Each structure stands twice: as C-alpha cells, then as structure tokens.
Amino acid sequence: MDLIQSILMGIVQGLSEFLPISSSAHLVFTSNFYKVFKGIEIVQESNQEVFLDIMLHLGTLIAVLIFFRKDIMEIIKALYYGLKNKDYGSKEFKTGLYIILGTIVTVLIAFPLNEVAEFLVFKPAIVGGLLIFTGCLLLFSEWWGKRIQDKKDITLKSSLLIAIAQGLAALPGFSRSGLTIATGLLSGHDRTTAARYSFLLSIPIILGASMVYPLVKLDLAEVVTYNWIAIIVGTIVSGIVGYLCIKYFLKFVGRFSLGIFGYYCLIMGVVTAVFFSINM
Questions:
Q1: pLDDT, tens digit (0-9, with 9 covering 90-100), for 9-62
Q2: pTM, whole model, 2 decimals?
Q3: Number of separate domains in the chain
Q4: 28 with 172: CB under 8 angstroms?
Q5: Closest CA to 25 of 35, 37, 13, 36
Q6: Contact 125, 182 (CB under 8 A)
Q7: 3 state DSSP class of 21
Q8: Domain that holds residue 177
Q9: In which band, very low, low, confident or very high, does the pLDDT at 206 lie, cut at 50, 70 and 90?
Q10: Which among 181, 202, 192 has a CA at the least distance from the CA of 153?
Q11: Closest residue by Cα to residue 24 from 96, 141, 121
Q12: Burial of residue 4 (number of CB atoms within 10 Å: 0-12, 13-18, 19+)
C-alpha cells in the first residue's frame, strides 16, 4: 500500500460513506482497480489494507460527530434528563432510544454476516451485483416513497426497519446509507428526515467497528511496520471529504431525487461486475 492508494481511498470513503452508493463496495473497487492497473495480483486484503479501511471509517466518523455535534449533545442530554425525571416524551429522547435499539438490531444482523463480508472483499464481481440491487432499491423507494410521505418524525417501527437495513449493509455492495434512506422513504418519511436519521444511526456502529477491530485482531508487533504516513493522510482526507459530503448531500436531498444515485449504482455495478469477471 502506498500514499497514492491511501489518498484515493480516503477520497472514495469520504464521498461514498454518506452518499447512497456503498462505501465498502467502492473501497473494494478502488483497491482492486488500483491493483489491476499496477499489475498486482488480486488476493485477500493484507492486515494493513484492512486496518486502513478501519481508519478511513474513523475519519468519516469524526466528520459526522463534528457535523451533528449539536444534535448529539441534545440527544445525550435528553436521555440523561429523561431517565432522571422519568420524562420519555421528547423527540430527542425517542431518537436516542431508537438509535440504541437500532444499534442492537444492527449488530445482531451484521455479526453473522461478517465472514461473508470478508469473503466478498476480494470478489468484486459479486459486490458489483449487490450494488445493482442497491440501485434498484433506491429507484423503487423514490417512486413508492412519493406516495406515502406522511411521517415527519422517526417512529419505533420505522427505526427498527432502518436498523435491519443497516445490518444487511454489512455486505459490501449493499450501501448502508442507500438501504437505510430507502427504508426510511418506504416507511413514509421524507428524504431529509431519513438521511439525518441514517447518519445519526451510523455513529455507534462505525465507532464500535473502529474500536473493536484494533482491540481484538490487531497485532501490535505488525502495526509498527505499517505505512503510517499513508494511513494518517488517508484518514485526514476521508474526514475532510466526509464532512463536506454530509453538508452538501443534506442540501441536495432536500431538493432533489435520489434517482441519480440509483442509476449510478446500476451503471457502476454492471461495469465492475463485467470488468472483474473478465480480469479475474
């Protein structure tokens, strides 16, 4: 892994973590496209590449924490005072409760899929097929969601459905933001409400993944041999790009359809599935 690869992957992670186009799929594509053009054999990712993926997600986690810092503080205060005063009726308290329950549901679904996800990391043609599904779901949710947008606040039912979608998105190609926002639309919410909740719900999962992997799987003796300049630069790039992406994506979804991302996923999925079917 070199500096150019880490910068490219940082840009890709920053954009694709919050756009409904599957960050995991695009990290797989970017890494494997880079290897193909560099003449490197496509095999299972090294520990250093896996660690870079984790750090890139940490960069986008910092971005979402900074962007939603006021919302996060309001939710934390609402949970504290709600439990203290037995007042559970505020919107912020309910949102916090839904995020906690949703995180539990996500983990229960995503954990059994972990081995499949690791297998798909070096099967980009299959990942392309899953990205095609994401594109179809986005297009359908836009079409169907326009008929039933009648809920301005997230409900318990819709929060659990969105959490299930987030759990399935453990598989690369199933866009986390794509599946969760689409589920929000299909549950009757507008795009902005669905997108904001999707980003907030992602925080515990990304935080957990960024902490659990280093603690459980990291070999400290091996870590010192990593290209830390490339890792740090890639992480900073993913954070900066991620922050800008959140800012402008929320403005975009307030005015425009997600259909453009659906078509992008379809085209990208077909191109990568064909390309890697031929080159592997």
A1: 999 999 988 999 888 778 878 877 877 777 766 555 567 887 888 889 899 999
A2: 0.87
A3: 1
A4: yes
A5: 13
A6: no
A7: coil
A8: 3-279
A9: confident
A10: 192
A11: 121
A12: exposed
**CA separation for the pair 89, 195 (Å, rounded):** 23
Looking at residue 28, its amino acid is V
- Tell how far CA 214 is from the center of its chain: 19
Query: CA nearest 138: which of 264, 279, 45, 9?
Result: 264
Q: Which of 34, 52, 32 is nearest to 42 (CA)?
A: 32
Separation CA 54–CA 60 (nearest Å): 10
φ, ψ at 132 (rounded to 5°): -60, -40
Euclidean distance between CA atoms 52 and 227, whole angstroms: 10
Q: What's the CA gap between 137 and 255, in Å, rounded?
A: 20
Token representation of residue 116: 């499949």
Cα–Cα distance list, 80 to 32, 88, 103, 137, 219 (Å): 46, 10, 18, 37, 38
State the residue for tokens 């318990």. 156
